[in-house]
Design a protein that fits this description.
The protein is of the alpha+beta class and 477 residues long. It folds into 2 domains: 244 residues, Glutamine Phosphoribosylpyrophosphate, subunit 1, domain 1, CATH 3.60.20; 184 residues, Rossmann fold (3-Layer(aba) Sandwich). Helices cover 32% and strands 25% of the residues. The strands form 6 sheets. A 7-stranded antiparallel beta sheet has the order 3-2-4-1-10-9-11. A 6-stranded antiparallel beta sheet has the order 5-6-7-8-12-13, with helices on one face. It has a 5-stranded parallel beta sheet with strand order 18-17-21-22-23, with helices on both faces. The chain is globular and about 75 Å long. The relative contact order is 0.11.
Length: 477
């Protein structure tokens, strides 16, 4: 899971790109990068947060009217700077790309690119694979007279070959600005614009909140398999390439996206409220009578407050959060995650002491964070602890860009609910019901593979084993 932004403006787009990346920092903490085209590609990237990476960026050298930015949360591949995005190639035309997602058939395509097109990938980042595949498709066109349809046909060629989840934004040097999505629309990508004295500035980003901060107007989400090309005259061309049934990642609503983002015309905060109300129905059936409902800040607030309101139970903020800490879920190693939990959260003793506490979190994946939270609440004097997950049990690896690609890490893959309760040390563990979640999204088909094992792109054991092996070999487990 990553965050992307691309801007096609008139002068100094680097400032908008870097400021935009700040609004997407929650989507990736490992690395950040920017590329500007001003007759040639000027690139700057490195490991760390946006403010660290670009602290000494010489903006005068990065003036240009078109550029891309990226924040990385690595799920497969190393965390070295060479694997940070953007990535560029000089032929044909000069191409630079950023993407959000994960390619499923990475090893197969890397070998094919080398054997058939003599392209050697010097990175384990799959954006290079998408970029090189696009390059090979464009090479087959009339390079002197490249048409918009040629570009769309090339993207469709990529969609036919590359399997997985991807929302990509690309600069085609001296030609224009290209954005496209995978055939299932698994990862979000929104388009926006801003009117200036010089003309309309166009942008693409992973989330709409980026446009709110930059003063852009949200146009719309890209559809599954959609391609948008903006030529040098700022004419917008759109087409639908290869499409399958929509399978939007529901974890965007559950955890990844900011609560103030609008995705597919739905405010993320409102979606969490809807899930919280449905969660209340499941909780009511248990007959439990907690004294208070608290949340694990910050993503669980709307689940917890909506559930409490629906049940008629007091909501309280029972855990204080250190806002200077990053997101533990997207922290690279298990050791770092466990260390961060204690540094990040602290129970408010007077709120939870001698209380039966229902604590709501967005999900339980590895269980280490949940276990530590339960321990801290016990230490703070809670009488009973009911741990509630706003998502169904995560049982299967995500192969589309969320860091749960190693099955041995996933608690519910190996244990039933009562065994999970014992592991966490809670008095009860309650999950959102998968059928209830599906029912909430009857009108927006979702990807729920991590809960159900039903992968929209299809995934046999060989694919899952290959992804898990790649993950293990990256020494991030």
């Amino acid at each position: 899971m990553c965050g992307v932004i691309g801007v096609f403006g008139y002068d100094n787009v680097a400032t908008d790109i870097i400021n935009g990346l700040e609004t997407l920092q929650h989507r990736g903490q490992d690395a950040a990068g920017v590329v500007i085209f001003n007759g040639s590609f000027k690139m700057f990237k490195g490991n760390g947060h946006v403010s660290q990476v670009f602290k000494n960026l010489p903006l005068e050298r990065f003036r240009g009217e078109i550029g891309l930015g990226h924040v990385r949360y690595s799920t497969i591949g190393s965390t070295e700077a060479v694997d940070a995005q953007p990535i560029a190639v000089n032929y044909p035309y000069g191409l630079a790309m950023v993407h959000n997602g994960n390619v499923v058939n990475f090893n197969e395509l890397r070998q094919k690119l080398y054997e058939e097109h003599h392209r050697l990938l010097d990175t384990s980042n799959d954006v290079a694979l998408i970029l090189y595949t696009l390059a090979t498709q464009l090479e087959q066109k009339d390079l002197k007279h490249l048409s918009v349809q040629d570009i769309f046909d090339s993207v469709q060629g990529v969609q036919n070959i590359v399997q997985g989840a991807y929302s990509a934004v690309t600069i085609i040097a001296n030609k224009g600005f290209l954005a496209f999505t995978d055939p299932y629309g698994i990862r979000p990508l929104v388009m926006g614009k801003r009117y200036t004295d010089q003309g309309v500035v166009y942008a693409f980003a992973s989330e709409s909140t980026t446009f709110d901060f930059l003063g852009y107007e949200l146009i719309r989400d890209l559809k599954p398999g959609e391609m948008v090309f903006i030529d040098n005259d700022r004419h917008v061309h759109t087409n639908i390439g290869k499409t399958k049934r929509r399978a939007f990642c529901v974890f965007e609503y559950i955890y990844f996206a900011r609560e103030d983002s609008i995705i597919h015309n739905r405010l993320v905060a409102s979606e969490r409220v809807r899930m919280g109300k449905r969660l209340a129905e499941t909780f009511r059936k248990t007959g439990l009578q907690p004294d208070i409902v608290i949340d694990v800040p910050n993503s669980a607030y709307f689940f917890a407050s909506a559930m409490a309101e629906e049940l008629g139970i007091r909501y309280r903020r029972g855990l204080a959060k250190n806002h200077h800490m990053g997101r533990t879920f997207i922290t690279p190693t298990q050791q770092e995650r466990e260390k961060m939990v204690r540094q990040k959260l602290n129970p408010i003793r007077d709120i939870v002491k001698n209380k039966k506490v229902a604590v709501v979190d967005d999900s339980i994946v590895r269980g280490t964070t949940s276990k530590r939270i339960v321990e801290m609440l016990h230490e703070a004097g809670a009488k009973e602890i009911y741990f509630i997950s706003a998502s169904p049990p995560v049982k299967h690896p995500c192969i589309y860009g969320i860091d749960m690609s190693v099955k041995r890490e996933i608690l519910a893959s190996h244990y039933d609910v009562d065994e999970i309760r014992q592991y966490l040390g809670a008095d009860e563990v309650i999950y959102q019901d998968l059928e209830d979640l599906k029912d909430l999204y009857k009108d927006l088909p979702i990807c729920h593979a991590c809960f159900s094992g039903e992968y929209p792109t299809g995934a046999g054991e060989d694919v899952l084993e290959a992804i898990e092996r790649e993950k293990l070999e990256s020494n991030r487990v």
